[in-house]
Design goal:
With about 100 residues, the protein is mainly α. About 30% of the residues lie in helices and about 5% in strands. It has 2 helices and 2 strands, in the order H-H-E-E. It is globular, with a radius of gyration of 18 Å. The structure holds iron/sulfur cluster.
Length: about 100
Amino acid sequence: MKSSRRTFLITSLGVASTFALSRQALADAPKVAETDPTAQALGYKEDASKVDKAKFAKYAAGQDCGNCSFFQGKATDAYAGCPMFAGKQVASKGWCSAYNKKA
Ligand code: SF4
């Protein structure tokens, strides 16, 4: 019993520190460049108002990463992670065609 509790504690600590590390790593992660091939495929722009509206007709004014369900930061974060761009950060004022309004 004692040993399983210890194992649990060690595992929890490991998970917690991995999480803390990945948060830190993400804060230092490079910002997505608009020239990035994934960014080009998804029509990502750092400034949502510069989205090519002819090409991405689904874009509507007011949509940006900061209010997208995929944005991994707080609404006040200027940049945060996004699963479309693993290991990189997107601008809260940005937009891409995978945009999905936060519920
Ligand atoms: S999926 Fe959402 S948060 Fe990620 S780049 Fe596109 S609009 Fe921004």
